[in-house]
Amino acid sequence: MTGVFTEDAGIINAMTVDVEDYFQVSAFEKHIPRGDWQRWPQRVERNTKVILELFERNKVKGTFFVLGWVAEHFPALIRAIAESGHEVASHGYGHERLVNLTHAQFREGIRCTKRLLEDITGREVLGYRAPSYSIGPDTLWAHEELRMAGYRYSSSIVPIRHDLYGMPQAPRFAFFPDQVGLLEIPVTTVALLGRNWPCGGGGFFRLLPYLLFRKGLRYVNRHDKRPGVFYFHPWELDPGQPRVPDVPFRDRVRHYLNLNRMATKLGALLRDFRFDRMDRIFLEKADQHYPVVVLENLKFSAREA
What we know:
CATH class: Alpha Beta
Mean pLDDT: 90
Structural class: alpha/beta
Number of strands: 12
Number of helices: 11
């Protein structure tokens, strides 16, 4: 597919989808108990099929980080994702942030979800993304648990300052944390004025002008000469989703603003850049050498940032 590039036409970015329903997001966890999930209209199947059709029209393959809960309820959808040539990876079981889990609970969730996805697709699950990017200064123990569970990579750190997540002192590009042998692939940021700025999708993509995002990702490809990692959710393409009552103003803005513009902006992104699966971009390049970073040394400075 033709992209914006001439001299850097070989750069291919990673397209990722966090497969969860609108009522499962962390912003609503205080308003919708997990036991009430079944009571809400479930729209993840419909919305994910819209994404599959969009990717097919644009000849794009991507990585779908799937909640184990979604896989249990919609196994045919997960098979369709795999059979369409996309990578199926793990998003944990019930969208629990790691700060709310014990080591044992986390271990059970990642192992259970990996088995479930592999049973459904018949294919090995290599990747993991923490709900709400909740691997950070206080949850670095998760990398070793993931390696022991058989995962080869994680995409769970965002090297920015944010009120809900982030580890601004972490590397901006793929690295091996400590010596655990598991590759961590951060969501893309742009380094500007001594600070990392988001350029990898999610709510920032909906809230900010598209031209700003295009310029940022183009800069990463051309200046840093690295592939970007972009992400979004199926519910972001669904302006007709039910509204959750009594949600604070800030969370309402983050979740609902510009849902009606997301499809247009995403279509432009797919036309302007080239995308592929995480595993093919980051795991299949035998000549790629990633640095080993001792994240424990960054814990204090990240927490203080």
